[in-house]
Specification:
mainly alpha, two-stranded parallel ribbon, 2 strands, globular
Amino acid sequence: MSDLEQANALAGARVFWSQWDGYLADGQAGAALRADCDRRGIPFETVHTSGHAGPSDLKRLAAAVAAKRLIPIHIFERLRFPELFSNVELANDGEWIGV
């Protein structure tokens, strides 16, 4: 978060948590993230997910979010995203992306 803050990349940000809610318990890394978001006034929304999303689910999510661009991270088959979506930007781990 501090890196994003230094890059002035938090304006209008919001967090969607889609991992197990147990990671948000006191003492867990998720709890620290949620507290940091609260301090910064960043909306934090828990969205239940189950298993791995297939292409049709990803397309529904992308349509619902209506993002200007999609950047697949922490995902298998990320190189296939341009086959599914027109607004994909691929980036490597640790690579900064301008917003």
